Amino acid sequence: MAIEGADLIKAAAFLGAGIAMGLGAIGPGVGEGFAAGKACEAIGRKPEEAGLLTRTMLVGQAVSESTGIYSLVVALLLLFVV
């Protein structure tokens, strides 16, 4: 049983999708954790600003999460289009 061109392309697409999601999830995970940690430190210093800090943290985490969503889109394109 020989591996033909179409099978090789499909295998490379599956491998690429796994790598895209694996590496694409690291950045948002680290970034969101860092942002949450810094927000907790800031709330500990100035508890009266908790609302503003939480709102700003959530906006920053949403922006950070968009890179994870982009990698999910790339992975889905590799799985279902290629």
Question: What keyword list fits this structure?
Answer:
3 helices, single chain, mainly alpha, F1FO ATP Synthase, ion transport, 0% strand, F/V-ATP_Csub_sf, 87% helix, 82 residues
Can you describe this structure?
By secondary structure, this protein is an all-alpha fold. It has helices spanning 5-24, 26-45, 50-80. The protein is built from 3 helices and no strands. The protein is rod-shaped. The model has no long low-confidence stretch (mean pLDDT 92).
Per DSSP, the total helix count is: 3
Oligomerization state = single chain
Strand content: under 5%
Structural class: mainly alpha
Organism: Uncultured Desulfatiglans sp
Subcellular location: Cell membrane
Domain V-ATPase proteolipid subunit C-like: 15-78
Keywords: ATP synthesis, Cell membrane, CF(0), Hydrogen ion transport, Ion transport, Lipid-binding, Membrane, Transmembrane, Transmembrane helix, Transport
Short description:
With 82 residues, the protein is an all-alpha fold.
Task: Outline the secondary-structure elements.
Blueprint: H1 5-24, H2 26-45, H3 50-80
Helix pairs in contact: 1-3, 2-3
Site (Reversibly protonated during proton transport): 65
Function: Key component of the F(0) channel; it plays a direct role in translocation across the membrane. A homomeric c-ring of between 10-14 subunits forms the central stalk rotor element with the F(1) delta and epsilon subunits.
Protein name: ATP synthase subunit c
